[in-house]
Amino acid sequence: MNKLDSILHNVNVLLNDKKLNKSAFAEELGMNRGTLHNITTGKSPLTVEFLLKISEHFKIPMSKLLNEDPATATVDQIFDTMKQIVKQNMR
Q: Looking at the domain 3-89, which fold is it?
């Protein structure tokens, strides 16, 4: 599983942990259910903005969403992962 697939996996695990269906999850994030579905299934690109919404709304450290150890993650590690996300979206 590559890094971006792993991040999407974390988002889907969060959805299951919160016991929310995609409609309720999308509503909590203030977005369209179809858009959420497309992002979580990899049909639409994962964005930093989407991850920030999740991090802020559910008060989850960005490092956790990005599979970085919150205790040891550096800003550079988090920034590098975000750059990967942006590069993927430029393809």
A: 434 Repressor (Amino-terminal Domain) (1.10.260)
DSSP for 33-53? HHHHHHHHTTSS---HHHHHH
Q: What's the CA gap between 80 and 26, in Å, rounded?
A: 27
pLDDT digits over 43-85, tens only?
888 888 888 888 898 888 888 888 776 667 677 777 777 777 7
**Tokens 């993927």 -> residue:** 88
Number of helices followed by number of strands (H, E) in the chain: 6, 0
pLDDT tens figures, 6-31: 888 888 888 888 888 888 889 888 99
Distances in whole angstroms, Cα of residue 72 to Cα of each of 2, 27, 33, 64, 77 = 21, 33, 34, 11, 10
Whether 89 has a pLDDT exceeding 70, the answer reads no
